[in-house]
Amino acid sequence: MQYDQNYDDEDESKAMDAAGSGRRFSDFDCPDCNANNPHDGFGDGDEIRCYYCGMEYRVEVTEEGRLKLREA
Ligand SMILES: [Zn+2]
Fold first, then answer.
1. Cα-to-centroid distance, 71 and ligand 1 (Å)
2. How far away, in angstroms, is 32 Cα from ligand 1 center?
3. How far apart are the CA of 37 and the centre of ligand 1, in A?
4. Residues at Cβ < 5 Å from ligand 1 ion
5. Which residue among 35, 57, 63, 66 is least enclosed by CB atoms within 10 Å?
6. pTM surpassing 0.90?
7. How far is the CA of 50 from the centre of ligand 1 (A)?
8. Å from CA of 1 to ligand 1 middle
9. What is the C-alpha to C-alpha distance for residues 43 and 38, in angstroms, rounded to an integer?
């Protein structure tokens, strides 16, 4: 794997809109394989799939606008 970026969910620079739990994201790092997945926009309650390993995640966005992914 060549995706050896440090994993954290601090996506401030990539967020389309910083608005707490209403925040939308334009990409995510897969918790399972750590791949970065570009996305055309997702937010709290959406389901997303990693294009690399195929895992599906349900999106949670905290009140602080932090992204959390739970295995669907
Ligand atoms: Zn993955």
1. 11
2. 5
3. 8
4. 30, 32-33, 35, 50, 52-53
5. 63
6. no
7. 5
8. 11
9. 13
- Range 42-48, long-range pairs (CB < 8 A, 24+ positions): 47/72
Kindly write down the DSSP assignment for every residue of the chain, as one continuous string. Answer: ----PPP----GGG-SB--GGG-BEEEEE-TTT--EEEEEEE-TT-EEE-TTT--EEEEEE-TT--EEEEE-
pLDDT, tens only, 25-38: 999 999 999 999 99
pLDDT tens, position by position, 37-71:
999 999 999 999 999 999 999 999 999 999 999 99
Q: Which two tokens stand for residue 51?
A: 């294009």
Strands 36-42 and 47-49: unpaired
Residue 25: its pLDDT value, please? 96
